[in-house]
Amino acid sequence: MLDDTDLYGLNACYHIVLSEQWQRRCDVKDKRIPSVIFHRAIKRIRLILLNFFS
């Protein structure tokens, strides 16, 4: 089951992704970087969810 630390990690991960995207939105040259961060975050979230459902 998800405990508070998992939920906190999930939230932190999500907020990091959002803030990164907003920071980079002005900087069109660095389009690749937020997508890397985003995919890394998605992997982490999926891992947490897999642990939750298994």
Compact overview of the structure:
This protein has 54 residues and is mainly alpha-helical. It has helices at 4-25, 32-53.
List keywords for this structure.
54 residues, 2 helices, mainly alpha
Please describe the topology of this protein:
Elements: H1 4-25, H2 32-53
Helix pairs in contact: 1-2
Describe the structure.
The mean pLDDT is 68. Helices cover 81% and strands 0% of the residues. Helix 1 (4-25) packs antiparallel against helix 2. With 54 residues, the protein is mainly alpha-helical. It has a domain at 18-53.
What is the count of DSSP helices, taking H or I runs of 4+ residues?
A: 2
Please state roughly what percent of the residues sit in beta strands, choosing from under 5%, 5-15%, 15-25%, 25-35%, 35-45% or over 45%: under 5%
Rg over CA atoms:
13 Å
Share of helical residues: over 70%
Query: Which sheet architecture does the biggest sheet show?
Result: none
Distance between the termini: 9 Å
Structural class: mainly alpha
Give me the strand/helix succession: HH
Strand tally? 0
Question: Which regions have little confidence, pLDDT < 50, spanning 5+ residues?
Answer: none
Morphology = flat
The chain-level mean pLDDT equals: 68
